[in-house]
Specification:
The complex is a heterotrimer. Chain A is mainly alpha-helical. Chain A folds into 2 domains: 50 residues; 208 residues, MetI-like (MetI-like fold, Orthogonal Bundle), CATH 1.10.3720. In chain A, 76% of the residues lie in helices and 0% in strands. Chain A is built from 14 helices and no strands. The C terminus of chain A is likely disordered. Chain B is mainly alpha-helical. Chain B has a domain of 212 residues: MetI-like (MetI-like fold), CATH 1.10.3720. Chain B has 13 helices and 2 strands; from the N terminus they run ααααααββααααααα. The model of chain B has no long low-confidence stretch (mean pLDDT 84). Chain C is of the alpha/beta class. Chain C has a 5-stranded mixed β-sheet with strand order 2-1-3-11-4. In chain C, strand 1, helix 3 and strand 2 form a beta-alpha-beta unit. Chain C is globular, with a radius of gyration of 25 Å. Classes of the chains: A mainly alpha, B mainly alpha, C alpha/beta.
Chain lengths: 294, 313, 517
């Protein structure tokens, strides 16, 4: 009996100390995460702060942390001078189409690399990876000549097609496909399921989180693309959002109206931010649905 | 026979990808290599009818360039420091984030924010934060204003640090670059690692709990191995991206790529390629790109080799 | 992880080997390179090179011949790249419509591309596929780049052409039209070493000295007319003014300068020192700026900086116009009392009005200081336009007609000048009624600073210079500016060290330039 109570007391001591440790750890974890969050958020606060200042206040040698008077008109100016409406629609169109096409191409290629056997697979894959390592700027001139040759200048085609394949995404998805047990595939083969059906019914649902990540990355890529669109589609009717950002805020003397530009950057970032918040739910869902059970 | 059929099928799957790559990637690479071996190739001069002879002068020009060592050293330093730091930090954040319930969604969203922004625009914000304004580089500098970072460290009684302005030290410049690059690299890495963590089977952890395995042991013995494909992915892509570092430096230092008193101090390989291109020296730019490619290739091969041995699927 | 480390270390040591090899043994002379007094006395001896045609001997042959029939009225489509913001573009487009009343078959697409560099990059990519525009905003450096491909049409045959323009005149410029261009601006098109005309001036600006009238009056100071003190009783030099102001206001920086490169190039021009040449003799270099005069000037400016008399945007870490408009309060404690910057940026040099709606001080605008009263030199900036060759000669002729229309139209130049703050390129714009009523307000205070800046520009029309343009001229500009920002913050406690450093910096700059071409 005596021994038993000793044991019990010990156990409750241990439990108590475990609880203390756990609380401390939780506090530490939160402190850490919140500190990181603050340092992540600060530049955004600064962007918003700057976007609400007058140009005079922006140029002050001692920056103000809160605008002296809030210049909400900067946002109106940004929207109007940069003609953001049309640019938004253009960018959305290009983003959606290229994301959809890119997903198809990426899934097919990643599947081939992850599940199918063919001669020279490894060499080809290594070669693909190698292309990632060349600074893309070098491609620009040759590609410009190619698309001119095709007669694609100033069209949506030129904004979509040359950017469709990303070795990054193929690599990312292949890694994910590889994690799916081969047994599933072999079982499906025995059942007589076709590759495409297997891909559609099994692989894609299981890799949904990755596919959604790719979607976001690709959308973002279209949204942030700058050099290429400026070069190949500068006729105004096909311009994309970032081009509008750069071109529109230079005043007569060649100086940039930074607060208005900051306002435009904030406006342009907003949809992406919303897209992420919206799609994040799907990431979570995708994760829970794809939990591999045995 | 089944083998043969599969072969054929595989190529069909790859067809759209390969066609596009051939046109928009392989052909430009081919062109780059060609141009790299034409001495002093300049696209404008070529249009004007100048002929260029075959040779390796572009390569020797690149290697003999006075600042080539600086460019290479900066590139390598930035890579070697920022990739491990950002990967470890991202891993730590992802694990912490995965262990909490309240605020989880909010924090996740916040951490992803930097991805939504333009490198150069936010770089300008960072530059403003680290800026110090005044007559730096004189015996008795007047400091008119110090950016927010110096204001913060001033609260703790530290003298203002000249991070990026006239007369600043190389170490201070590098520190700012590293902070910015890590800040920029975190969201993607957190996203990938968190995705990985969430697909890790809870049963492993339950088993570990029952066995009374310690936290750190669980982390190193279960979490890291299970995450290894994701870690390998972010490390490899991190290195590839790191070797191509350039726009972040433009963001902080502007076109002069260094403090005013030391322009070009933080130039990188891609910075050199860019400046050669903008001068019309496509031959030299191509040669520099091929050299850079060689370096990245070597590093990646080493990593893939390590990955083969260490990564668990 | 270990393996990563090892690779890193290997690569690191590889990098440092390169670095060591690259830095290998350089010893620079600690010898002096002449005194500023010599520079001053030499500058006084040179008389203003007149901007006559003799300085632009034609050694080349124009590459475009005007067709005998001139513009045949056929339908052509032109593209015109500019950097005009919305309001300016609207003005230009209005005049293009006017132009179309005369030539209805010339369709013009006017696109605003972004910055000047964006225009250059765009055209640079377009030329290899023969997709370049017909007309483009340009700086001389850009034209030099395009010209490597021989894509730019020389304008000489147009200017001299007596073929009918289909509108009761000739295609060329009349003598009156030619004489109406401000000479310095017009000659910018002929800075390419072969005496041929590559571009027409479009709208221009220069550097002017903005000063704080109230502070100058309060201290009974005269506005400086020259840079360096020539005697102990010299009270009109920039040096004197800076010294007095610095003594009185120790926490302020008397002078702010926007552009280091402009400063050095202008000093070379004012001192009669070499900078660059467009067409060097066989075996000689384009880049001539590593001479004792330039080094002596850089050394003197080093003293200015070390004394806290001046700063530049790069060195200061913020806009120098921000210093100039600062009010000395806790919010903006450091001020400057003089600011040298673009004449087109007058609005940025205006302090904000206080709560009662008054300006805290009045801004004066005048010419920048000089080395010699008989050899005044101020830089000419702002866009010109060039015309590209096309397979259809009618397109080129039509391009010329538009360029001629825009650059010789007094109304357009006046309206564009008023709206942009840039200076019109025609002398007769000054007597245009709307423009002259705009200029008439120049002395009415800060609200009319743009007019005052324009007036100062017009008054110094004989002083404009432009630098030679060739493949590598943009690099020279870049390097001379960087050289100055490197030299200014160097401590001047040891004269020998400073000299050696200056020699080294100039040497590096020249090497960098030579390597770039």
């Amino acid at each position: 009996m005596a021994i038993d109570t000793m044991k019990e007391r010990n156990m409750s001591d241990i439990k108590k100390s475990q609880r203390v440790v756990k609380t401390i750890v939780t506090i530490l974890v939160y402190t850490f995460l919140i500190l990181v969050a603050i340092s992540v958020l600060f530049p955004f606060y600064w962007m918003l702060n700057s976007s609400l200042k007058s140009l005079e206040e922006y140029k002050l040698t001692v920056p103000t942390f809160i605008p002296r008077s809030f210049q909400f008109t900067n946002y109106v100016d940004a929207f109007e001078t940069a003609n953001l409406g049309t640019l938004f629609i253009n960018t959305l169109f290009v983003g959606l189409v290229s994301t959809a096409l890119s997903l198809v191409i990426t899934v097919l290629a990643a599947f081939a690399f992850a599940r199918l056997e063919f001669k020279g697979k490894n060499v080809l894959f290594a070669g693909l990876l190698a292309t990632m390592m060349i600074p893309g700027e070098l491609f620009t001139i040759t590609n410009y000549q190619t698309v001119t040759h095709f007669g694609w200048l100033n069209s949506f085609t030129v904004l979509i097609i040359p950017m469709l394949v990303s070795v990054f995404y193929i690599y990312l998805l292949r890694q994910n496909f590889l994690q799916i047990p081969n047994e599933l595939y072999l079982a499906a083969k025995v059942d007589g399921t076709s590759d495409l059906k297997y891909l559609w019914k099994v692989m894609i649902p299981l890799a949904l989180p990755t596919l959604i990540s790719i979607t976001i990355l690709k959308m973002m890529g279209s949204w942030n693309a700058y050099i290429w669109p400026r070069l190949v589609a500068n006729d105004g009717t096909h311009s994309l959002i970032t081009n509008g950002l750069r071109n529109s805020f230079t005043d007569t003397s060649g100086d940039v109206n930074y607060p208005v530009q900051m306002a435009a950057v904030a406006l342009v970032s907003l949809p992406l931010f919303l897209v992420f918040i919206f799609l994040r739910k799907y990431i979570m869902k995708g994760v829970s649905r794809s939990g591999i059970k045995g | 026979m089944v083998e043969g059929k599969n072969q054929w099928k595989a190529w069909i799957y790859l067809l759209p990808c390969l066609i596009l790559l051939l046109i928009f990637t392989v052909w430009p690479i081919f062109n780059t290599v060609r141009v790299a071996f034409l001495d002093g190739y300049n696209g404008m001069k070529a249009v004007g009818g100048t002929e260029f002879s075959f040779g390796i002068k572009n390569f020797s020009d690149v290697v003999m360039y006075k600042e080539f060592g600086t460019c290479l050293l900066n590139t390598i330093l930035l890579c070697v420091i920022t990739v491990p730091v950002s990967t470890l930090l991202a891993l730590l954040i992802a694990v912490c984030l995965n262990s909490i319930k309240p605020l989880n969604r909010l924090l996740q969203t916040i951490y992803f924010l930097p991805y939504v922004t333009n490198t150069i625009a936010i770089g300008m914000v960072f530059a403003a934060m680290f800026n110090i304004v005044g007559t730096m580089g004189t015996q008795n500098p007047i400091i008119t204003t110090a950016g927010i970072i110096n204001n913060i460290i001033g609260i703790f009684g530290v003298e203002p640090i000249n991070f990026i302005n006239t007369g600043s030290s190389y170490a201070a410049n590098m520190a700012v670059m590293i902070i910015y690059i890590v800040w920029n690299a975190l969201p993607f890495k957190i996203l990938i690692l968190l995705g990985g963590l969430q697909s890790v089977n809870k049963q492993y952890y339950d088993a570990a709990k029952i066995d009374g395995t310690s936290r750190s042991r669980t982390f190193w013995r279960i979490t890291v191995p299970l995450l290894s494909p994701m870690i390998a992915y972010v490390v490899i892509t991190g290195f590839i991206g790191g070797f191509k570092e350039y726009s972040s430096i433009i963001g902080i230092f502007g076109e002069k790529l260094g403090p005013a008193s030391e322009p070009g101090r933080l130039n990188t390989m891609v910075g050199y390629i860019y400046s050669s291109l903008s001068l019309g020296n496509e031959g030299r730019a191509s040669a520099a790109a091929i050299i850079l490619f060689g370096i990245i290739m070597a590093v990646t091969l080493v990593q893939l080799y390590v990955q083969k041995k260490r990564v668990h699927y | 992880m270990n393996k990563f480390k090892k690779t890193g270390v290997t690569l690191l040591s590889l990098g440092s080997i390169f670095a060591i090899v690259a830095c290998g043994g350089s010893s620079y002379s600690r010898e002096d390179f002449g005194s500023i007094d010599d520079v001053i006395s030499h500058a006084k001896t040179i008389s203003s090179k007149d901007n006559t045609d003799d300085n632009f001997e034609k050694t080349g042959t124009p590459n475009f011949a005007v067709p005998e029939e001139g513009y045949d009225g056929s339908e052509v489509e032109l593209t015109f790249y500019s950097t005009q913001g919305q309001s300016l573009k609207a003005i230009t487009d209005k005049y293009i419509e006017e132009f179309n009343k005369i030539y209805p078959n010339i369709k013009v697409t006017h696109t605003s591309i972004g910055s000047y560099d964006d225009v250059r990059d765009q055209i640079k990519t377009e030329i290899p596929v023969k997709n370049q525009p017909n007309i483009a905003y340009c700086y001389p450096d850009h034209v030099a780049l395009y010209n490597l491909s021989k894509a730019v049409a020389h304008l000489d045959n147009f200017i001299d052409s007596t073929v009918s323009d289909g509108n009761g005149g000739v295609i060329g410029l009349t003598d009156a039209q030619k004489a109406d261009f401000i000479t310095g601006y017009y000659n910018e098109g002929r800075q390419f070493g072969d005496g041929l005309m590559y571009s027409m001036p479009f709208s221009k600006s220069t550097e002017v000295l903005y000063y704080n009238k109230d502070v100058f009056d309060a201290n009974a100071l005269e506005v400086p007319t020259h840079w360096f003190s020539e005697s102990d009783s010299d009270t009109t030099s920039m040096e004197y003014v800076c010294e007095v102001l610095k003594k009185k206001y120790q926490n302020d920086i008397p002078l702010g300068y926007d552009s280091e490169a402009n400063w050095m190039i202008t000093m070379a021009e004012q001192c009669g020192a070499d900078y660059t040449v467009a067409a060097p003799k066989e075996g000689e270099s384009h880049f001539k700026f590593d001479n004792p005069t330039m080094k002596a000037i850089a050394k003197r400016f080093n003293k200015w900086y070390q004394e806290g008399w001046m700063t530049t945007q790069q060195l200061y870490g913020a806009y120098t116009s921000g210093l100039f408009i600062a009010d000395g309060s806790d919010k903006a404690p450091t001020r400057s009392f003089m600011s040298i910057g673009s004449s087109a940026g007058a609005n940025h040099q205006l302090p904000g009005k206080n709560s009662s709606g008054n300006y805290p001080f009045q801004v004066g605008i005048t010419s920048i200081p000089q080395m010699s009263a008989t050899n005044k030199k101020v830089i000419s900036q702002g866009p010109s336009v060039c015309i590209f060759k096309k397979s259809n000669p009618q397109e080129v002729v039509a391009s010329w007609l538009l360029v001629k229309y825009l650059t010789t139209s007094v109304q357009y130049q006046a309206e564009f000048g008023k709206a942009s703050g840039y200076v019109p390129v025609l002398k007769s714009v000054a007597s245009d009624p709307t423009y002259s009523s705009f200029i008439a307000n120049a002395d009415l205070g800060n609200d009319y600073a743009t007019a005052l800046a324009a007036k100062v520009c017009l008054e110094q029309e004989d002083a404009y210079y432009t630098s030679p343009a060739f493949n590598g001229s943009s690099m020279a500009r870049d390097q001379i500016g960087k050289a100055l920002t490197k030299i200014l913050p160097k401590p001047n406690t040891d004269d020998g060290d400073l000299n050696a450093f200056i020699n080294e910096v100039f040497d590096d700059a020249i090497k960098e330039c030579e390597q770039s071409i």
